[in-house]
Amino acid sequence: MKLIDKTIVAKKMPIRLVRNTILKGLFFLATTFGLLVLGILLYRIFAQGIGYLDWDFFQNFASRRPEEAGIKAALIGSIWLMIVVAPVALLLGLGTAIYLEEYAKKNWFTSFIKLNISNLAGVPSIIFGLLGLTIFVRALALDRSVLAAGLTMSLLVLPVIIVAAQEAIRSVPRELREASYGMGATKWQTIVRVVLPAAIPGILTGSILALSRAVGETAPLVVVGIPMFIAFLPKNVFDTFTVLPMQIYNWTSRPQEEFQSVAAAGILVLLFLLIFMNSIAVFIRNKFQKRY
Amino acid sequence: ACGSDSAKDSNSSASETDKPLQGEIAIDGSSTVYPIMEAIAEEYMAQQPDVKVSVGFSGTGGGFEKFIAGETDLSNASRPVKDEEKTQLEKNKIDFTELELAYDGLSIVVNKENDFVDYLTVDELKKLWVEDGKVKKWSDIRPEWPKEEIKFYSPGTDSGTYDYFNEVILEEEPLVENATLSEDDNVLVQGLKGDKNAIGFFGYAYYAENQDSLKVVPIDNGNGAVEPTHETIKSGEYAPLSRPLFTYVANKSVADKEQVADFVEFMVENAGELSEEVGYISLDDKEYDKDLEAVTQLKK
Amino acid sequence: MVNEEGVTILRVQQAQYSIREMIQERKQKKRIQIERFIPSILSLTAAVSILTTLGIVFTLIFETITFFKEVSVSEFFTADKWYPFAEAASYGVMPLVLGTLKITMIAALVAVPIGLATAIYLSEYASEKTRRVIKPILEILAGVPTIVYGFFALTFVTPVLRSIFPSLEMFNALSPGLVVGIMITPMIASLSEDALVSVPRTMREGALALGSTKLEVTLKVVLPAAISGIVASIVLALSRAIGETMIVSVAGGSTPSLNMDVTTSIQTMTAYIVQVSTGDAGYGTTIYYSIYAVGMTLFLFTLVMNLLAQYISRKVREEY
Amino acid sequence: MDKTVVSQLSKEKVYETSQLNLWYGEKHALKNIELDIHQNEVTAIIGPSGCGKSTYLKTLNRMVELTPDVRTSGEIKYRNRNILDKSYKVEELRTQVGMVFQKPNPFPKSIYENVAYGPKIHGIRNKKVLDEVVEKSLRGAAIWDEVKDRLHDNAYGLSGGQQQRLCIARCLAIEPDVILMDEPTSALDPISTLKVEELVQQLKEHYSIIIVTHNMQQAARISDRTAFFLNGEVIEYNNTNTIFSRPSDQRTEDYISGRFG
Amino acid sequence: MDKTVVSQLSKEKVYETSQLNLWYGEKHALKNIELDIHQNEVTAIIGPSGCGKSTYLKTLNRMVELTPDVRTSGEIKYRNRNILDKSYKVEELRTQVGMVFQKPNPFPKSIYENVAYGPKIHGIRNKKVLDEVVEKSLRGAAIWDEVKDRLHDNAYGLSGGQQQRLCIARCLAIEPDVILMDEPTSALDPISTLKVEELVQQLKEHYSIIIVTHNMQQAARISDRTAFFLNGEVIEYNNTNTIFSRPSDQRTEDYISGRFG
Ligand SMILES: Nc1ncnc2c1ncn2[C@@H]1O[C@H](COP(=O)(O)OP(=O)(O)OP(=O)(O)O)[C@@H](O)[C@H]1O
Ligand SMILES: Nc1ncnc2c1ncn2[C@@H]1O[C@H](COP(=O)(O)OP(=O)(O)OP(=O)(O)O)[C@@H](O)[C@H]1O
Ligand SMILES: [Mg+2]
Ligand SMILES: [Mg+2]
Ligand SMILES: O=P([O-])([O-])[O-]
């Protein structure tokens, strides 16, 4: 007894294949779309900014004269910001993710933390700015320092890192943990030696996205009140500083046409910084990537 | 007290010669005033590289917020301090001195293709910009003008520029509801360039930089149409649309921190020249002298 | 015998020393049990996220209360005008909410299909090599500062759109909406791709072996299996659209309005907060407090959305 | 029926493989394979680990293409058409040639949806037909009684052995012509294995079956013909009886005599 | 050595299980288990799928605790201490009691690092000692020759059979007292299986081995004692010879006679 009508199957085959081909094309187009936009964006910025991108641009502080304006304080400031954000956010994020995935019992408190984190991930950055201003700048009297801004940004990107790390930790096969426990390894040893190394690619993906965000954010720092003009470099995390997007924001709002080009040059620097960060992470990711 | 006085005197004279000063100066406030203060800070730090001057960009209101909290030494403002802010400052025992830095001339601007608007009177301006519940056409202002709908571009309602316009032109009546508002004057420039029936206003510097692609409208305040130019603004002939820009200094900072005192002096001496350079109009020299006097008072 | 040799060596070396004994020995001089404190230390880090939320609520709530002493709650939620700077001020938050919604909707219409399609292309169709090249590039797109996107919207997208739809105003919801969509697309693409890739290969093989086309495998097997990760990525991305500030401030204008028109100038909740915090409003005025009330609304807004998404994600999740 | 008799009927050929070579990148995994598969028979493929059994099986429905960097040369004719021809639609091939994997791999859907998946994608939408197909396939895979009361539960709630039979049912649901099985019982307990073996014997009435197994007794018990692979080559291919009683190649004998289990 | 003789020596008991019950939530998976394990013997556990073999094995090193909602009652004495006692450190227990799993589960590290893992976590850092341990364990698991030239390659490059032997080597590296094996050969080809079986026979000189298998002939071949589980109960436990030649319980006989494979 044959229930499947093979003629129907045969008849449907061509249309299914066509559908597959068409959608594959559409998926491809969608992918190119993103790249195309990036291309246009980069082209415009490049064309406008490349003329200002010389060695002096990196050597000089901000200036009222477009030819003399430089990115030094902002670039170094952004790096300082990352020096605070990366370890703080990564440590807190990983710690939380490990706690949630490995230690936390299934109870209302744990689900409350989880809910809380996914909600925090959606809280607009500008609200973190208000938080940073109230808690770090004012209450803890950190002023408009690298530390105050860095902590604000850490909290901002924390949820992204937590969620990515959780996802990565969860996807480490159970068999690997069992193997480790089976050798008498403690939970912590298992986490450090087996789970985390296997989860690194995933954790990195999330962290890149998070750090890129921290580097490119303007709104919360505007609210925190990071100054614009700085003609010196911070010596430690308690010094005041400025960052690339703030500097760019400022240049774009200048009346002089030349500053638009200076801004474009600044954007180029920021993009190069992002590309640099991403390539480090991609390198590590590819190096560690294992398929089980 | 006597000893410290003499120490200060010797220091302030030394600042112009050899002994370098140290310390920090925190400045924040109006984004309109920012370019002037940036220029001053830049020049000052060329002379005193060990003084760390930081200039913020938080807007007049935001600047005062920090000034009230005692976080800044100077607060830039594109309007005089408000009563609420004064109350707060008194509450926090922060005495301050108001210093004028420069003028900004608000420019009324239309699209380059607009060939019929030759000038506007202050009354016409008000008629144009006040909300009256109707769709506005050019022909509503002068019958010979085309019957086309006007597009309005205005700085954001929270800017000093808007505030000033509101006060002197609108006289606190509501602005046309369908006006397009933006915080960023460059953004307004873009709008006016693209829109044939557009009219808008913003700081003089933004017009000066875009003279080729925009058309400025002379204003008649009863004494004939006056176009905003460097001279007409400085002389006060371009009225009523030029406004002063300020910075507020905490008296205590000047008294306690020698680098602040030194900076403020430097600022008053150079504000005229430097504000011209970044696109504003300098005050009369007498005004700066008055400022200088006030500062010297504080140091005592 | 294969193992003859192995066994002899085993014996020989056993004579020299025994790992078992070495381990026992090390057990004796066991270092202090740091292990025991690890859960507590980690739970402290986990508590940071709760403290953050508390901090936000704490920061927002006091000023919000002050605000509501001056403006009634009912006015805030029912008045149809947001006009805080006029003499006769009106504080109806709906126009701002609507502005935010417009941007989010347009962004979602762009980002969800494009982001998902990209994720699918990368995880199911593209070669490993392509994937490795394109993914990091897309991540750069996610890191472009929003202020850059803002000017891109204003000076490129808007003029292009205006040449197609001449009635479009210089400031509108459409252009920043599209660009916000572009900004969050990589986020959806990258995170969804992770979710898709983590679906076991054996599941794809099972479906392919039944004569499925790749499309069918993707839509009927892989996508459903990865759905909770995908929903999470979309929610995260849309939350960013809701919270996006700079793009909207630059290209959206600042005119709160209560209509469904996307061709005219708008203002979003975030744009309002930036407007006031970089602007001129006096410290201690009603306007000053209003940013906290708007911030609170925004906070609640994202909260509700997230709860909803959690619920949906739990409903559709497939266990394996 | 005596196996020798069966094979001597010289049934119609389903697959004809000639001069098949396959490389994974540099690795030459299949070497000059010559092998014909006959209709309504069970053909077993045995050989040590890594000898290319799975690879050959996966070439028969071109699943091997999913591995990147795979190259093939030679010819595999399925019902007289060369399936290695790029113009041959894999979807069509795989509709004719079902596959059961070593590790059960049900979809994370209900039991019902798992079985109905194949018919559905092939355009069968009629609820009544689907119901019947599901029941018939589950019965065919000897699992109907165990799951009939929970057809709409998630398939991951089943035990390993049940999952494997579900996967067989899923494969039967599209009524293939050939069924490929890659060590289908290696993850199963003896009772489940027994059931699956019986099943295979029954299924050959309607289907041609090719089974990879590392269990020589299983091959001896259930297959009509056996191919012995070594290092990517077919060392010997013959009636199962012949292979196990009088292998003609020394290597075959060595392998078989080292047998157990 | 004759098996009967071995068991009659009545060697020292490693494990003594009494009145062991275990529940997965509501599911009563082990019922009143009474079972003693003897030193330097191979004990096989057989029974149909789902009868609780793996569960019992995992209870012996308390790996079963990793499953949420598990409850136990009764007693398992390992070297005269009750391991179900909460005060018993699982890490200590598992250092004494190694485990080999059904599916090879090497870490995504190099071969060397896989084997050195155990000694390292137990604080052995000396490079020379580690090198020796690695070599010794790999030899002990009969895989040294195959991997000695690529100790620093990733373990995932090995074949399934090699991976499993690597896992055994990894387990040997900490020189446990007891080794638990859960169907260690079910994913392997015959030659690898043979190797592992020989290995098991040799290892019992130094270790006590408990092996779960669904392959009765394997149990008969390599074990000294066999326990037959059914539905969470121990139906019969005796010398392997006795179990396979004169089972005392009808159910045992039924199960064994339905045998194959
Ligand atoms: N994706 C791959 N890339 C490179 N080499 C591969 C790949 N898959 C398999 N091989 C190699 O090809 C050869 C044949 O592999 P195959 O899986 O067909 O063996 P098998 O006979 O099925 O073994 P087993 O009984 O272990 O399943 C092996 O040497 C294997 O290492
Ligand atoms: N995590 C779990 N939750 C609930 N029930 C479980 C769980 N693990 C196992 N069981 C049930 O406990 C019983 C015993 O399982 P166990 O894995 O010990 O069987 P087994 O004899 O090892 O079977 P197999 O030969 O298939 O491996 C089975 O009925 C199984 O369904
Ligand atoms: Mg295989
Ligand atoms: Mg088991
Ligand atoms: O920044 P402003 O206060 O001058 O608008």
Automatic annotation (TrEMBL), chain A:
It comes from Peribacillus asahii. Keywords: Cell membrane, Membrane, Transmembrane, Transmembrane helix, Transport. One of its GO terms (biological process) is phosphate ion transmembrane transport. It is a multi-pass membrane protein. The gene is pstA. It comes from the Bacteria. This is Phosphate transport system permease protein PstA. Its main location: membrane. The keyword tRNA-binding does not apply. Residues 75-280 form the ABC transmembrane type-1 domain. Pfam families: BPD_transp_1. GO terms for molecular function: phosphate transmembrane transporter activity. Coiled coil: none annotated. GO terms for cellular component: plasma membrane. InterPro entries: MetI-like, MetI-like_sf, Phosphate_PstA. The lineage of its organism: Bacteria, Bacillati, Bacillota, Bacilli, Bacillales.
Automatic annotation (TrEMBL), chain C:
Pfam families: BPD_transp_1. PROSITE patterns: ABC_TM1. GO terms for molecular function: phosphate transmembrane transporter activity. The gene is pstC. This is Phosphate transport system permease protein. GO terms for biological process: phosphate ion transport. SUPFAM superfamilies: MetI-like (SSF161098). Keywords: Cell membrane, Membrane, Phosphate transport, Transmembrane, Transmembrane helix, Transport. The chain crosses the membrane at residues 37-62, 103-125, 137-161, 173-196, 217-238, 287-309. It comes from Peribacillus asahii. It is found in: Cell membrane; Membrane. Part of the binding-protein-dependent transport system for phosphate; probably responsible for the translocation of the substrate across the membrane. It is a multi-pass membrane protein. Belongs to the binding-protein-dependent transport system permease family. CysTW subfamily. One of its GO terms (cellular component) is plasma membrane. Residues 97-309 form the ABC transmembrane type-1 domain. CDD domains: TM_PBP2 (cd06261).
TrEMBL record, chains D, E:
GO terms for cellular component: plasma membrane. Keywords: ATP-binding, Cell membrane, Membrane, Nucleotide-binding, Phosphate transport, Translocase, Transport. CDD domains: ABC_PstB_phosphate_transporter. Pfam families: ABC_tran. One of its GO terms (biological process) is phosphate ion transmembrane transport. It is a peripheral membrane protein. It is found in: Cell inner membrane. GO terms for molecular function: ATP binding; ATP hydrolysis activity; phosphate transmembrane transporter activity. Residues 9-256 form the ABC transporter domain. Part of the ABC transporter complex PstSACB involved in phosphate import. Responsible for energy coupling to the transport system. This is Phosphate ABC transporter ATP-binding protein. The lineage of its organism: Bacteria, Bacillati, Bacillota, Bacilli, Bacillales.
